[in-house]
Every structure is written in C-alpha cells, then in structure tokens.
Amino acid sequence: MTTTVRPPEGGACASGHGAPLPFAGKKGLLGHAKELQQDTIGALHRLSETAENGVLGFRIGSSPAVVVSSAATAREVLIDRADDFGRGKRQTRALTPLMGRGLLTSEGELHSRQRRLVLPHFSPRRVPKHADAIVAVAEETVRRWSEGVDVDLVAEMNALTMDIVTKLLFSTSTRDNQTIASAITEAFEWEMHAITSVFALPMWAPTPRNRRARAAIETFRNWIAGFIRERRTADELPEDILSDLMGARYEDGGTMTEDLLLDEVLTAWGAAQETSADAQAWTLYLLARHPEAMARVHEEVDSVLGGRSVTFEDLARLPYCLQVFKEAMRLFPPAAVIPRQALKDTVIGGYTVPAGTMVFLNTFSLHRRPEVFPDPERFDPDRFTREREKAQPKGGYLPFGTGGNICPGSHLAMMEGHLLTALLNQRMRYELLPQGAEVRPELLVNLRPDPGVRAHVSPR
After folding, report:
1. Could you tell me which residues are annotated as the binding site?
2. Which residues contact 426 (CB under 8 A, 6 or more apart)?
3. Residues forming the annotated binding site for heme?
4. Which end of the chain is more exposed for a tag (fewer CB within 10 A), N or C?
5. What is the pLDDT of residues 154-174, one digit of tens each?
C-alpha cells in the first residue's frame, strides 16, 4: 500500500518546498529493513514499481529513506541538486574501513582535488594503451579451457578480472589467489550489511561478523600496500597505473601522501575488479540464454577477426559486441544502487525530502522504465544501435552514474567489456548447465548472479 500525494504543477514551489513525500505502506517498527536485508534489489525494485513519479519514501527502522528511479529525478540528485546530497553516514561507515579516503568515500574539496588528479589517467586518450594487456590475460584464461570444462562463470570472471586489474595496476599476476578473492568477498558482504541493516554495529564492535571483516580488510590492504612498498625501492618503474598514480602531481607540484595513495589504489582495484567481473558474467549468461544473439556475435567476430586476437583498433568494427555488453549492463547494472543522503531539506520530483533522509538511486529499476525501454525485461542488444542510443533521454541509462561522481574508470571498463565480449565469444562456446540456467540478481555492493552461473565451456 502506498500513500500518494501528487506534486504541485511545475514541481517545487517558489519557497523551495514541494508536496509531502509519498510513503510506502507501514511495515511495523523495522519498516522495510527485513525485506532489504533478505533481497535488497528486489525490495527496492518493488518499491520503485509503485512510485508514480519516480520517487517513493519508506523506512529502514526509524530512519527515513527514499528510492529514486526515473531519469528526471536521478538528474536532480546527481546533477541539478548534487550539492544537497552527500554519500551519507551509512555508505561512509560501510566503505571507509576498506577504501579509506579514496574517491568512493571522499567528499567536498578533497574529492574535487583527488578527482582532478586521478581522472586524467583514465581518460579516453589514456585507456587504449591497456588493451593489449587485457587481451593477453584473457588469452591465458581461454587456453586453460581448451579441453572443455564445467565452470562457474561468476568465479571464472572474478579470477580473470582480478588478474587483469592486477596486471594493469601492478604489472604482475595473481591468478587463483583465493585468499584475496575470499577477503574482498567478505569485505563486500560486511559493507552491504552496514548499508541496509537497522542494527549494524560499528566496525570496532567485537562481533563475529566484524572480526571476520576486519581480518579480511587487513589482508587486502596489506596486500596492496606490499606492491607500493616494492615500487618505492624499485630501480625502474613499469608503465602501469600504479606508476601513473605515484607520479601524478597536484597543481602545486606535490604528490599524494602514502596513505592517500594506498586509498586511491585500493579504490581503483576494488571498483574495477568486482564491477567488471559481474558485468562480464551477466553478459555471458545472457548470451547463453539467447542463442540468436550469440550467433550474431560469432558472425561479427569471425568476419572481423578471423582467427587472430582482437586489438583496440578492431573495436570500431565490432559494434554488436558492444551493444551486447551495454544491454547486459542495462538489465543488470553492476552499480545497481547509488546511495546518497540529503544534507538539508530539499526537493526531488516535486516532493519535499527532509535533511538526513537516505536516498537510494535505483539504476536497476531506472533501466526498466518502459517509456524508455519498451518491453524492458527482454534482452535486446539492438536497443544500443547508434541511432536508437542517441534517441534515449539523458539520464535514462546510467551504468556508471553521472555528474561529478561518475565512475572515473568508466572508459576503461567499457573498453575492457568490449574486448572481453569479443575475445571470449570468438574462442569459446558457453552452454548453461541445469543448475546454472536460473539465477537471481543479488546486490553485494555490485549486482551479481546468485548462486553463480554453472556452464560447460568448450572451444569453438
């Protein structure tokens, strides 16, 4: 049940206040907390579907919250009134133990200064130099599958993208490092619990969950710090992202402090690895579910590449591979929810949102708006032909966010996804096993297929 109040004509009133915020029906003392913990993305999607204007209030315990799920309201939060919103206490509390003061957690002048320093190293001009390294690592993966094997594509893509990001950042390999893979999963599970739980205790509280998380975070941070220590004493620096960040200089000629460098490298590694793994797992899953789309991918890569490896220069002639990847990120965006908190009384969609309200920008539901994407649950890569993509409203498709907090690595992530979609499908076939045919999206900071994607992988 939803109590609906229509906003005044023209949105907010001249005073800066709008109509009373519509709220979802009462859920007792806990509000929607239990539903959010059991199935975060499902609960937010159900709330979004009942929101007439892309905005709906609800509660997490006694804390007020809002779900936002239209292009217009997303723009208000991320661009038009971006100064009215911060990352929020819950998100900061959840991410800071792992990411420190990196770009995913910092705000204000620190965020602006770090963004100016870091962003140029992930610009469209810089990312092509990483293409060959991505392809080389992926070639090693397909060689391991040369005899045909049953795998979990989620685990395999995690291993692949962890090796890729480690190569791009540190010029080394950590394939099959289960200690690090387990540590990052444990840390992400704690982060999601801290964001959605009514009773999430601070990290210092000696609960079993917190002790596991602290150990995982210490393992991961020490692992990354080791690369930086080695680099400080190296006679010659390799050409990789860590060297770029170590040499990056502020306007006054200074460089990052040791702690801030560690935080930014951790942020780059964590954001790039898990996001890319989930996006690629969803892409392979959807292609395996849609053989007609897979056949078109095969036709394109065979025509353009023949039997040779893909290069950055080939990507312009592989448009359907990119369409497939974009459509997979429409249906299952890795960053499916962008949390914010109102810093002061403000307005979203013509409704008053009080200071302190948690705001969940729900890209999962935003990407399913039928007025933007007709028959939204259908997998249709042709939504992203050049002509149809240009016709989409601004803010209707936000796999990397938008505005001042858009993902700095979006160009690198898009190139990586394009290359991997071409290469993995050029070399291999993917047939879903019975236990991998049906999965559900699970929000674990990023959106991943649960319980995994079991498939038989064989050479083409």
Report:
1. 407
2. 298, 301, 302, 305, 310, 460
3. 407
4. N
5. 999 988 998 999 999 999 877
